[in-house]
Design brief:
mainly beta, eight-stranded mixed β-sheet, Methylamine Dehydrogenase, Chain H, Immunoglobulin-like, single chain
Length: about 400
C-alpha cells in the first residue's frame, strides 16, 4: 500500500476537484455569441452565427427565430451556419436564440424578409420629389417605401442595417431608407468644393465603400476607395491613386476580394484588391467603339458586362458578355435589343437565375440565364416619372 503524507493527500484531492470543476464548467457553460452582422435575412439564406461554446455537432445546437426552429447546416465550437426558415416566417422581426449544452443564449433581433426588388422613382425636373419603391418584376406593380426628396443615385441594399442606401446628386451625403421602419435619414460624406463621393459598393461582410473624387487640379484628379461608416458617414481610406480617367461603376467580387470598376471610358477594368491594396488595369478587347457601360457579378463571382454602342444609326449594337477579370477576354452571352438601353444598375438574381435591370427608365428587363430568353415587364405607364437604380435585398 502506497503511503501519502497528509498534506500531499490533500493536494491530490483538491487537484482532482479542480479538474472536475473545470470540466463541469466547460460542459455546462452556455454559448457566448458575437453581435449579428446583419439586421435582415431572406428565407433560405445561410446565416452565420459566431461565438464560443457551441456544440461541434450540428444536431447539438438548436437555433430559433422566435418559436420557429431553423435547420443547423453545420457547426463548430465557434461558428454555426443555419438556414433561415421559409416564407411562412417572413414579415416579422424575430428574437434569435441559440441553445447548446442545455443552455440558451439570446443572439439578438433579426427580420426575415422575402426577396424584394427596390427602385428609385422620380423625374429630372428641378425640385422633383423622388421615392424609394418596391417593384414587382413580374407585372411592374409597385408600392411606396418612402419619399426621399432629392434624387439619389448608386443605390445599394445594406443587410447590416436593413436599409436602401444611395448618394445624393451632389455626392455630398448618404441617404438611407430603412425598409422595415420606413425611416429616412442622411449623413454627410467626405466632400468639398472640388471633391465628391459616388458609386457605392458592398462587400461580403456588409462593409460599405464608395469612390471619392478630388478635382483640385484641372484635367487631373485624385481618386480614393474609401470605407464608409453608414451611421456617421466617416470614411477610412483604403487606397488613393492619381488618374486622368474616372473610375466608375464598381462591383465587388468575393472570390478575389476585389472592387472592380471601369476606366478609360469603358475600355479597361481597374481592380483594387481589398486584402493587398494592390491595383491593376486590364484592357478590354474590341471596345474601341463599343464601350462597356456596366458590370454585373453573379453569386459565384463570375463577372459580366453590358456592352453597347448606341447612337441611333445602323451601327447600333448591345450585348451581354461574360468577362474574364484576369485577362479581359470576353464571351458573348446574348445580343440585346438596340431600341433602348439599361439605366443605372443591372443585377443578377440567383434565385431566379435572371439578370434584371431598368430598361429606358420605364420597364423591367429580364434575361433568363438558362434559356437566354428575355422579356419586358411594364411598369405603370406614367410619362412624367422615370425608374432607376434597381437593386434587391
Amino acid at each position: 500500500m502506497m503511503y501519502f503524507p497528509r498534506h500531499k493527500m490533500l493536494a491530490v484531492i483538491l487537484g482532482g476537484l479542480l479538474i472536475f470543476s473545470a470540466c463541469k464548467k466547460d460542459s455546462d457553460s452556455g454559448p457566448a455569441v458575437e453581435p449579428l452582422s446583419v439586421a435582415a435575412v431572406k428565407p433560405d439564406d445561410i446565416l452565420t452565427i459566431k461565438g464560443q461554446n457551441f456544440d461541434a455537432n450540428a444536431s447539438g445546437n438548436i437555433v430559433k427565430f422566435g418559436d420557429v426552429i431553423a435547420l443547423v447546416v453545420s457547426a463548430t465550437e465557434t461558428e454555426i451556419k443555419v438556414k433561415v426558415p421559409g416564407t411562412s416566417a417572413t414579415g416579422t422581426i424575430y428574437t434569435l436564440t441559440v441553445t447548446a449544452h442545455g443552455k440558451t443564449t439570446e443572439v439578438g433581433v433579426i427580420a426575415i424578409v422575402p426577396l424584394t426588388f427596390y427602385a428609385v422613382k422620380g423625374t429630372f425636373a428641378s425640385g422633383a420629389e423622388y421615392k424609394v419603391i418596391t417593384i414587382n418584376p413580374g407585372d411592374g406593380s409597385e408600392s411606396l417605401i418612402a419619399s426621399v426628396g432629392e434624387r439619389i443615385n448608386d443605390v445599394v441594399y445594406l443587410a447590416a442595417t436593413n436599409e436602401i442606401v444611395g448618394v445624393n446628386d451632389a455626392g455630398t451625403k448618404l441617404v438611407k431608407v430603412n425598409v422595415t421602419t420606413k425611416k429616412v435619414s442622411s449623413v454627410a460624406l467626405p466632400s468639398g468644393a472640388t471633391a465628391a463621393s459616388n458609386y457605392l459598393v458592398v462587400d461580403k461582410d456588409n462593409n460599405l465603400y464608395c469612390i471619392k473624387y478630388d478635382y483640385t487640379v484641372t484635367n487631373h484628379q485624385t481618386q480614393s476607395l474609401v470605407k464608409i461608416d453608414p451611421v456617421t458617414g466617416n470614411a477610412t481610406v483604403i487606397k488613393t491613386f492619381e488618374s486622368t480617367d474616372d473610375w466608375y461603376e464598381p462591383v465587388y467580387v468575393a472570390a478575389t476580394n476585389e472592387v472592380i470598376g471601369l476606366k478609360n471610358e469603358g475600355k479597361s477594368l481597374f481592380k483594387l484588391n481589398l486584402t493587398t491594396k494592390d491595383t491593376l488595369t486590364v484592357n478590354l478587347p474590341g471596345s474601341a467603339t463599343t464601350e462597356y457601360r456596366e458590370l454585373i457579378v453573379d453569386d459565384e463571382s463570375n463577372l459580366f458586362a453590358y456592352k453597347a454602342h448606341l447612337h441611333g444609326d445602323p451601327t447600333d449594337v448591345a450585348k451581354l458578355v461574360k468577362v474574364n477579370a484576369a485577362t479581359g477576354e470576353e464571351k458573348l452571352v446574348k445580343d440585346l435589343p438596340v431600341n433602348g438601353k439599361f439605366h443605372d444598375k443591372i443585377i443578377y438574381v440567383s434565385k431566379l437565375s435572371e439578370f434584371l435591370g431598368i430598361w429606358d427608365q420605364l420597364v423591367v428587363f429580364r434575361l433568363n440565364m438558362w434559356s437566354l430568353t428575355y422579356d419586358f415587364s411594364p411598369n405603370p405607364p406614367t410619362l412624367d416619372n422615370t425608374y432607376t437604380n434597381l437593386t434587391s435585398n
